[in-house]
Amino acid sequence: MTFSKMEGSNSTISSESNDIHKDVGIKKPIEMKLMDLFSGCGVMSTELCLGANMTGVTLVTKWAVDLNEYAYESLKYNHPEIEVRNEKVEEFLTFLKEWESLCSLFLLIGDKSHQKHISPPEMDNIEEDEEEEVDNEEIFEIRRKGYGEDGDTLELEDGLCGAKDKLQEFLTDGFNSMILLLSGDVDVICGGFLGRYALARLVGMNYQARLGMMVAGAYGLPLLVSYACVWGAHHIIKSPQYPLPTHNVVLRGHSPLELESNVVTYDEGSAPELKNKLFLGDAISDFSRMENNESRDEMPYNSEPRTEFQKFIRSSKEVMPGLTTGQQNSVLYDHRPLKLNNDDYQRVCQIPVRKGANFRDLKGVRVRADNKVEWDLTVDREYLPSKKPLVPDYAMPFMRGTSSKPFGRLWWDETVPIVVTKAEPHN
After folding, report:
1. Which SUPFAM superfamilies does the record cross-reference, listed alphabetically (predicted)?
2. Given the DSSP bridges, would you call strands 32-37 and 188-191 parallel, antiparallel or unpaired?
3. Burial class (CB within 10 angstroms; exposed 0-12, middle 13-18, buried 19+) of 273
4. Which of 2-6, 73-77, 117-121, 142-146 reaches the highest mean pLDDT?
5. Rounded distance between C-alpha atoms, residue 81 and residue 77, angstroms
6. Count of beta carbons in the 10 Å neighbourhood of residue 42
7. Which has more confidence, 266 or 111?
8. Residue 361: what pLDDT?
9. Which residues pair with 300 in a beta bridge?
10. Of 120, 387, 404, 414, which residue is least crowded by CB atoms under 10 Å?
11. pLDDT (mean) for 49-62
12. Under 8 Å CB-to-CB from 56, ≥6 apart: which residues?
């Protein structure tokens, strides 16, 4: 699939209107429901909801799924209003099919036209002869397909009297509270899918699909990371264009050749006025100093906001969620390091405090003319009190000896790569 530059557009991706419902006879909904797959701690869905709300669309995350137990616990703690599930996405999707089958079996839905959920009083009005069509044998056949420990031990005995009523009560309560979604319940799905797979699946289901390569630094973040953003939409909806860059950015590396035509940028020859690129100092220069053993969950900032970015991060509820109107956040949360072990802490302390310093500056390492590292055999190898070497063996062959990343210092005037979840110095 290719995406070409549109006539009269400033974007290499799309020139279509941002009004996704224009000319298709669809009224913009008061609230749109979102499902977040591979949700992690919910960063992507939170950002999407924030962005949508700033444009007048009320987008609300209703369901989220992630296999990681800690991500699940974090999202559930911070967003108790979201139905969060801790399981594999494919198992969750399989369960949704079973859920819809059961809801249909108990006449909660018919012909999959369930735009209006049935309340308990309405359930009481179901004709007796219709209710009798629900067969216990059929119900427990479903249960035997994977919800029992042994899979085939449930039998229709006297001990199971009332099981149908209990199951109907559970389904009705879950149906009305929307603990699980049914076909048509969700308006927006987001997640970290494999790009090519997502495109293929969307096209295979007769959806529109497009891909845009977007650099975080070009939108006001001090990050170099590039994102492959895949959008899919129903064929009757006009898909919006990707937002154009707002900031200058220092680029390193390049996009894969097959994705060059998908980079979101301006037409050649245009000279847009962009804001200044952001650096690390623009984001965190107001942070309080911390030590290796920092344990506080909350601490004060060390100064008033120094940059527009810092003001935005601390801004009021009209711009950022979770703050009282007119309030500016003065508390810094979760500013804690991954505590280094004694060996790594001693290594870090010996890295010079200057821009670009890394393990190459430690005693016993020599940098050749081709920028590869080798052991300096003219000096004795230095060891830590633990008897382990100051320069660990794994650092030397990292990226075939060309890397300067192990134990590398970030600096205030740099636009930095994304920080990995486990921010260890060997990364």
Report:
1. S-adenosyl-L-methionine-dependent methyltransferases
2. parallel
3. exposed
4. 73-77
5. 10
6. 21
7. 266
8. 94
9. 331
10. 387
11. 87
12. none
Residue 96, both tokens: 């949704």
Q: 163-177 vs 136-144: helix axis angle to the nearest 10?
A: 70
The per-residue pLDDT for range 328-381, each reduced to its tens digit, is 678 888 888 888 899 999 999 999 999 999 999 999 999 999 999 999 999 999
CA atoms in the 13 A half-sphere facing the CB of 404: 12
DSSP-H helix ranges across 315-361: 342-349
CA pair distance 398, 407, nearest whole angstrom = 12
Rounded to the nearest 5 percent, the helix, strand and coil shares of the chain are 30, 15, 60
Per-residue model confidence as pLDDT tens digits over 389-411: 999 988 898 888 888 889 989 89
Which pairs count as long-range contacts for 27-32, CB under 8 Å and 24+ apart, including other chains? Answer: 28/57, 29/187, 30/58, 31/58, 31/59, 31/60, 32/57, 32/58, 32/59, 32/60, 32/187, 32/188
CA distance linking residue 365 with residue 373, whole number of Å:
7
Maximum separation of any 2 CA atoms in the chain, in Å: 94
Closest CA to 327 of 310, 315, 309, 312: 315
Structure-token match 């393990």, residue found: 359
Burial 77-113 (b: 16+ CB within 10 A, else e): eebeebbbbbeebeebeeebeebbebbebbbbbeeee
The pLDDT of residue 120? 37
130: enclosing H helix or E strand: helix 128-132
Mean pLDDT confidence for 261-269: 83
Contact indicator for 232, 398 with CB cutoff of 8 Å: no
* In the predicted structure, residue 24 carries a pLDDT above the cut 50: no
- H-run or E-run covering 190: strand 188-191
Beta pairing partners, 37: 65, 191
Convert the pLDDT of each residue in 288-319 to its tens digit. 888 899 988 899 998 999 998 898 888 765 55
- Name the nearest CA neighbour of 59 among 16, 38, 94, 30: 30
Residues whose CB is less than 8 angstroms from the CB of residue 160 and which lie 6 or more positions away in sequence, other chains included: 136, 140, 154
Q: What is the pLDDT, as a whole number, of residue 59?
A: 92
Identify the band that residue 138 occupies on the pLDDT scale cut at 50, 70 and 90.
very low
Q: Hunting for tokens 């500013």 — which residue is that?
A: 335
3-state secondary structure of 227: strand
CA 22/CA 35 separation, integer angstroms: 24
The predicted model scores a pTM of: 0.65
